[in-house]
Amino acid sequence: MAHHAPVVDPAALREDIGDLAGKFRIPLLLVGVVGLVAAGLLASLSDDGWAKRFLFGYLWAYWFFLTISLGGLFFTMIQHVTRAGWSVTVRRLAEMLGANLWVFAPLSLPLLAGVLFDGAGVWEWADPVLVESGPTADLLQHKEPYLNKPFFLIRCAIYFAVWSFWGWKLYALSRKQDETGDPGLTQTMHNWSVAGLPLTFLTVTFAAIDFLMSLTPTWYSTIYGVVIIAGCAVSVHATLAVIVLLLRKRGTLTEAVTVEHQQDLGKLLFGFIVFWAYVSFSQFLLIWYADIPEETEYYLVRFSHGWTFVMAMLLTGHFIIPFLGLLSRHVKRRDSTLMFWCVWVLFMHAVDLYLFIMPRLTHDAVHAGIEDVGLPLSLVDLACFVGIGGFACATLLTTAAGVALVPHRDPRLKEALAFHNT
Amino acid sequence: MAAADPTAFRDDTPFIGPARAPLVTGGKSVRWITDRVTGLALRDTPWQWTAAFAVSLALTVMLLGNVAYLIFRGTGVWGNNVPVAWGWPIVNFVFWVGIGHAGTLISAILFLFRQNWRTGINRFAEAMTIFAVVCAGLFPAIHVGRIWVVYWLAPYPNQMAMWPQFRSPLLWDVFAVNTYFTVSLLFWYMGMIPDLATLRDRAKNKVAQFAYGIGAVGWTGSSRAWWRYEKAYMLLAALAAPLVLSVHTIVSFDFAVSQLAGWHTTIFPPYFVAGAVFSGFGMVLTLIIPAREWFGLKEIVTLRHLENMCKVIIVTGNMVGYAYAMEFFVAWYSGNAYEAYAFVNRALGPYWWSYWIMVSCNVITPFLFYSKKFRTTPWIIFVISIFVNIGMWFERFVITITSLHRSNVPSSWRYFSPTPVDFMMLIGSFGLFFTLFLLFCRYLPMVAIAEVKSVMPMPEHENLNAPGAHTGQDSINPPQTGDFRTEGAY
């Protein structure tokens, strides 16, 4: 791997996103507002009650963008902890995703409001009537020391504090290095990452339990947090590759990020797709095999009312097909094919989250005695996706505005520029 | 420490900022590496080796004697009872299989991640892996009871219509462990071919020339041979990487597909894999710290190598701790009385001592490695690595024994106590392990000579981390004499 570093124009390393922020920030915010208003209006047409249907769509879209940003934080920390050299040229993009985590605190307000108003939210445990005398009251009362409103809100505050702080801290330190060129900051970022990585792992685990697993409050799985974190890893590598390819199309990053980094992002994406399949299938197989009623309820609803099709779609679309598709080195090195597979995987990540969340609506409809319950697909979800996506992208552009796209004074930059896959 | 050689102290990982410490220290030449590694295999047998080998062989004979006694008398010679039918044999099996994870992780997964520090330790760790799997394989084979029909596990058509139970993970285990053993052996052997050829060419006596010649399968070192070798290495690495995960995943299925509280939990597959890597690296450290001292390999297995392995211990130890915490949390959260009882019983029941040994060794010990001083002081690493080994044996003890002895039918609850045969077999399995390992240390190249040469600090390599190296100028700086700290990533 002893290749000579290419001659890179130092000015090319200091490029930022240019006028993207100025041009798109306001339109994206408008898209956000319009999307969420549209979602609210569409939800009022739903049979489930407008607040409930809206919040389910909202929760899904929220977690889609949240997992990507959390993935950015994980990516940044792991590069620091492992003292990675190859990834310096793409690390700034992940730092920006991580630094954008703060926006998910205000964006969570509708979900938290749903908890505060009795019976309006998505979580059964937040409805005092159900906890008092619902069909699963015994279990809900058992879990009350954990699943109760004040403690839930305290935990949320801790999650957002940890994510926002570390996302901001690592971004700020890295930008400081842009200014001062102090190689000692690399060690500082390393130290912050060593402390932050386990903390982020734990907070994401419990956030996954609180927001997603507790949708089925009677159900439990110890691997749940790992499955969600696998989704973070899958989605962030796809997102990073998409951002790189788009920016290169605009003529930025063309010198710093080479086809070698592109291939490496593709390799890691491939690896984490396999990892996602590994943990998801492990959870399924163990529950299916042991066949214990408390646990199988989660999959029973996912094998009925049209969800079987979505399960099969995930197995093929989130694992088998992209596994074969991303296997070849040429696919990862060619812009068009890598772009195709990254968009594909991001779509499948959205389907994956959909399967975590929406079968609860089916479950509730069945228990409400509605006949012929089908997949609860709705335009509400799409509108929520557009809405939250608009807000998250607008703040991401603001975060990135005027900041170099490459940590151009990182002492390991030259390693990254010189790096070649053998 | 080789205090006479001032350069010996340059193998310090506490390098400044982002600069990378060299992977071969002491300013050694390429020739020195070949001389040192082949010299270890071709020298006269030292008396210390003979003494150690005699002890190990005696323990192996004790193991075989116990196996013979077991076959003659039956499984009643063990402490196994009903409900604890799995007993120590399965504890030992999982323990040894876990240890057998570090080698192939280092040679396959770290290779794919381009962690070139692996070159100094991979041969050593792969050998350890293979011998650990040999020890592991013994226990389920003798645990079947009627050992003379153990071939029933093999899926072949026959007139008796004895067809294996394909729905049982115990059978998947037979496949998983065998596949892993085969691929690890191939990987290990294939990587050794160039070095065996070197030994063949340097051997003085006819027997050694002939034996190494057979092993080297006509290796000439031509560029075409190297090209194919590297291709094959890459392919085997890609094939072996999922195998590293699959083996302990299947082992975890042995437990987790059941309905027994304490066994049936969904985090088992990644948790077992993390634990296996944790114990594997623990054992590599236990073995390599004395070895680098005795065999004079401190320039090749540097403090940077040791520190990196300690960091792997931190990460995997934390993963194991995470799994313990999740199990405990969910045991309460589930509202399942049996699940909650199983975990309270682990911590406070009759086997409480084993649980707390496990937690102290596996959860608290890795935190000691957060101290840079601890993870760069060989004797401290050595002591901690022993605790890792102990902790991981007790983890398997806790999982197997405590869950079974309070199984679903209270009338069958029974305390498990091991017999002398159990103890002798566990100790004997270490004898078998060390017998094989000492043979390896004596006769085979302990370090991947060619691979280590590829990561040596070379003057012609670029100096990527020198001050000002990121200005975009194309610079080729020879390393400053006597200071490798500013040397590049090689």
From TrEMBL, chain A:
<feature type="transmembrane region" description="Helical">
    <location>
        <begin position="268"/>
        <end position="289"/>
    </location>
</feature>
<feature type="transmembrane region" description="Helical">
    <location>
        <begin position="24"/>
        <end position="45"/>
    </location>
</feature>
<feature type="transmembrane region" description="Helical">
    <location>
        <begin position="192"/>
        <end position="213"/>
    </location>
</feature>
<keyword id="KW-0812">Transmembrane</keyword>
<feature type="transmembrane region" description="Helical">
    <location>
        <begin position="338"/>
        <end position="357"/>
    </location>
</feature>
<feature type="transmembrane region" description="Helical">
    <location>
        <begin position="99"/>
        <end position="117"/>
    </location>
</feature>
<feature type="transmembrane region" description="Helical">
    <location>
        <begin position="219"/>
        <end position="247"/>
    </location>
</feature>
<feature type="transmembrane region" description="Helical">
    <location>
        <begin position="377"/>
        <end position="406"/>
    </location>
</feature>
<feature type="transmembrane region" description="Helical">
    <location>
        <begin position="309"/>
        <end position="326"/>
    </location>
</feature>
<keyword id="KW-0472">Membrane</keyword>
<feature type="transmembrane region" description="Helical">
    <location>
        <begin position="57"/>
        <end position="78"/>
    </location>
</feature>
<protein>
    <recommendedName>
        <fullName>Quinol:cytochrome C oxidoreductase</fullName>
    </recommendedName>
</protein>
<feature type="transmembrane region" description="Helical">
    <location>
        <begin position="152"/>
        <end position="171"/>
    </location>
</feature>
<keyword id="KW-1133">Transmembrane helix</keyword>
From TrEMBL, chain B:
<feature type="region of interest" description="Disordered">
    <location>
        <begin position="467"/>
        <end position="490"/>
    </location>
</feature>
<comment type="similarity">
    <text>Belongs to the NrfD family.</text>
</comment>
<feature type="transmembrane region" description="Helical">
    <location>
        <begin position="353"/>
        <end position="370"/>
    </location>
</feature>
<keyword id="KW-0472">Membrane</keyword>
<feature type="transmembrane region" description="Helical">
    <location>
        <begin position="169"/>
        <end position="190"/>
    </location>
</feature>
<feature type="transmembrane region" description="Helical">
    <location>
        <begin position="125"/>
        <end position="149"/>
    </location>
</feature>
<keyword id="KW-1003">Cell membrane</keyword>
<keyword id="KW-1133">Transmembrane helix</keyword>
<feature type="transmembrane region" description="Helical">
    <location>
        <begin position="423"/>
        <end position="444"/>
    </location>
</feature>
<dbReference type="InterPro" id="IPR005614">
    <property type="entry name" value="NrfD-like"/>
</dbReference>
<feature type="transmembrane region" description="Helical">
    <location>
        <begin position="379"/>
        <end position="403"/>
    </location>
</feature>
<feature type="transmembrane region" description="Helical">
    <location>
        <begin position="312"/>
        <end position="333"/>
    </location>
</feature>
<dbReference type="Pfam" id="PF03916">
    <property type="entry name" value="NrfD"/>
</dbReference>
<keyword id="KW-0812">Transmembrane</keyword>
<feature type="transmembrane region" description="Helical">
    <location>
        <begin position="271"/>
        <end position="291"/>
    </location>
</feature>
<feature type="transmembrane region" description="Helical">
    <location>
        <begin position="92"/>
        <end position="113"/>
    </location>
</feature>
<feature type="transmembrane region" description="Helical">
    <location>
        <begin position="232"/>
        <end position="251"/>
    </location>
</feature>
<protein>
    <recommendedName>
        <fullName>Hydrogenase</fullName>
    </recommendedName>
</protein>
<feature type="transmembrane region" description="Helical">
    <location>
        <begin position="49"/>
        <end position="72"/>
    </location>
</feature>
